[in-house]
């Protein structure tokens, strides 16, 4: 039995709330159970210097954990002088995931920065961030089209993410912290709405997992992400 009493293939309660940040071009408050992340999208009228003159835009991301997002206060990384390796890994993952479904030349020489700030953490903060960031990016692009900044929709597809793992020998979907901290295998899957694989991160915390177990985790992830994409579609409709 899972600590949350969920079925092995059951997501936590997921919600996506749009337009929660008054001044951002796009925003979404995403909740996966008790994990909550505020995602905001900011348009900058110039791209990164290394893309200057290319006619191509860029989508990037920053990720941060608020000090009391966890049981004990976490020191702000700005006070340590640089983001941790974990933070850099997650924000690069979010950026890669969004760029995989964005027609960058259609942006022109502009940059959209997605800020993902974890308000409360209970496992799956990176997957929640990606799922909510897509909504914030979508709304930013809609804002740009409504003002004739761009003439076409640069989004090629949806993208969402979910965690899977092996907990007490059982493959399960969408791990919360109680499961994540004790799982024998922990994996994160990023997939597009059409089922394309953007990224897979999988780690055996104890015994190595088999190919058959990996295929089972992938099947769980596909089913879970299909539900997340459907929720994204309903929210933006």
UniProtKB/TrEMBL annotation:
CDD domains: RNase_PH_bact
Protein name in the entry: Ribonuclease PH
Positions bound to phosphate: 86, 124-126
Assigned protein family: Belongs to the RNase PH family.
GO molecular function, one term: tRNA binding
Taxonomy, superkingdom: Bacteria
GO biological process assignments: rRNA 3'-end processing; rRNA catabolic process; tRNA processing
Complexes and interactors: Homohexameric ring arranged as a trimer of dimers.
Function statement: Phosphorolytic 3'-5' exoribonuclease that plays an important role in tRNA 3'-end maturation. Removes nucleotide residues following the 3'-CCA terminus of tRNAs; can also add nucleotides to the ends of RNA molecules by using nucleoside diphosphates as substrates, but this may not be physiologically important. Probably plays a role in initiation of 16S rRNA degradation (leading to ribosome degradation) during starvation.
Keywords linked to the UniProt accession: Nucleotidyltransferase, RNA-binding, rRNA processing, Transferase, tRNA processing, tRNA-binding
Organism ancestry: Bacteria, Pseudomonadati, Pseudomonadota, Alphaproteobacteria, Hyphomicrobiales
A Pfam family that the UniProt record links to this protein: RNase_PH_C
InterPro entries linked: ExoRNase_PH_dom1, ExoRNase_PH_dom2, ExoRNase_PH_dom2_sf, PNPase/RNase_PH_dom_sf, Ribosomal_Su5_D2-typ_SF, RNase_PH, RNase_PH_bac-type, RNase_PH_CS
């Amino acid at each position: 039995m899972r600590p949350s009493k969920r079925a092995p293939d059951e997501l936590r309660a997921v919600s996506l709330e749009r337009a929660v940040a008054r001044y951002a071009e796009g925003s979404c408050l995403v909740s996966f159970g008790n994990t909550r992340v505020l995602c905001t999208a900011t348009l900058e009228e110039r791209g990164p210097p290394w893309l200057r003159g290319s006619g191509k835009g860029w989508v990037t991301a920053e990720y941060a954990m608020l000090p009391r997002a966890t049981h004990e206060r976490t020191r702000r990384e700005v006070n340590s002088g640089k983001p941790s390796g974990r933070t850099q890994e997650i924000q690069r993952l979010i950026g890669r995931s969004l760029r995989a479904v964005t027609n960058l030349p259609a942006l022109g020489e502009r940059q959209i920065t997605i800020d993902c700030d974890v308000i409360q953490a209970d496992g799956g903060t990176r997957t929640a961030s990606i799922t909510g960031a897509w909504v914030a990016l979508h709304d930013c692009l809609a804002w740009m089209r409504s003002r004739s900044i761009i003439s076409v929709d640069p989004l090629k597809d949806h993208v969402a993410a979910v965690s899977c793992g092996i907990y007490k020998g059982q493959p399960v979907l969408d791990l919360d912290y109680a499961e994540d901290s004790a799982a024998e295998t922990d994996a994160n899957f990023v997939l597009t709405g059409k089922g394309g694989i953007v990224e897979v991160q999988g780690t055996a915390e104890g015994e190595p997992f088999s190919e058959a177990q990996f295929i089972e985790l992938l099947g769980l992830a596909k089913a879970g992400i299909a539900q997340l994409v459907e929720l994204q579609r309903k929210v933006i409709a």
